[in-house]
Write a structure and sequence with these properties.
single chain, 292 residues, alpha/beta, Rossmann fold, 40% helix
């Protein structure tokens, strides 16, 4: 299987978190052998307590934007000299800009938070909005340094209901191939309360539900196992809530991949409680991959 071919776009705002996202995106561009484009939405200035400026007073805003872009482009080129790095400053709302970039078939990379207490909240909402509505994968860079620097050599993917995990699995497999690491597929299950016997014994309902879950995971992986001998796939069937299983797995992962449903014409948030939990609390970067 060929490595991921989608170009990378990283959104920046000058915060330390966005610079961390630039570092991560530059490393990923090297692994994927794709160009990197850095974009800055000048409407961020509304969230940074800058007063609106018009006419001859627009100069400082342009200087500020040029400084942000210049700093991040230089940083990316130093980190990944072999990667083609371009940049763009757009006078637009950041979420709108990044969602549109995603519509062009690019993978969008964002930081987890911004500068200051208020900005941190606003950037968090932008990241969530982009992850919820972007038509292509979105990666939120978060977690510890070892997780961000591929120190665990493992990509984790959450496998849910049958027929809904294909895009996330494919993305995770390509990413694991590009990195040369293990792919760990996590599927959680819960035994209905009415099915739990007072004194569980081997072969009784709890065993049945686990065996059923193992079969569901095997069925989901059938299309990828054996398709690429270079990627080692580890199956992990866990009893309990999906969010608990994925958060635990993220502690020793370089990237956590989850799927997100997209409904045509649906304007509300597309992220369920599991995705919200991992985007807020995962110990590693999180990739949200849309499916219909």
């Amino acid at each position: 299987m060929r490595a991921v071919e989608q170009d990378l776009v990283v959104g920046v705002d000058g915060s330390e978190e966005s610079l961390t996202a630039v570092d991560w995106a530059a490393d990923e561009a090297v692994r994927r052998c794709v160009p990197l484009r850095i974009v800055y939405a000048s409407a961020w200035q509304r969230y940074e307590s800058h007063k609106p400026s018009f006419g001859v007073h627009r100069g400082p805003a342009h200087v500020f934007a040029d400084h942000i872009i210049g700093q991040t482009v230089e940083r990316a080129r130093r980190r990944a000299p072999a990667v083609k790095v371009t940049s763009d400053v757009v006078a637009e709302d950041p979420a709108t800009l990044l969602i549109r970039e995603s519509g062009r078939g690019t993978t969008v990379v964002v930081g987890s938070r911004g500068k200051g207490e208020l900005t941190s909240l606003l950037l968090g909402s932008v990241s969530l909005s982009v992850a919820a509505h972007a038509p292509s994968p979105v990666i939120v860079v978060r977690g510890g340094e070892k997780n961000r620097d591929s120190g665990f050599r493992e990509v984790v993917v959450g496998v849910g209901e049958a027929g809904e995990s294909g895009p996330a699995l494919a993305f995770a497999l390509r990413t694991a191939e590009a990195r040369g690491v293990v792919l760990r597929a996590v599927h959680s299950w819960r035994c209905p309360a009415h099915a739990v016997p007072d004194e569980p014994r081997a072969g009784e309902p709890t065993d049945f539900h686990q065996i059923r879950a193992e079969g569901q995971l095997g069925e989901a992986l059938r299309g990828i196992e054996g398709g690429d001998a270079t990627v080692s796939v580890r199956k992990d069937v866990v009893e309990g809530h999906a969010r608990t299983a994925l958060l635990a797995a993220s502690a020793s992962a370089d990237l956590l991949v989850v799927g997100a449903r997209r409904r045509k014409g649906h304007l509300g948030m597309q992220l369920g409680p599991v995705n919200h939990a991992v985007l807020h609390r995962a110990a590693c970067p999180v990739a949200v991959v849309p499916h219909t």
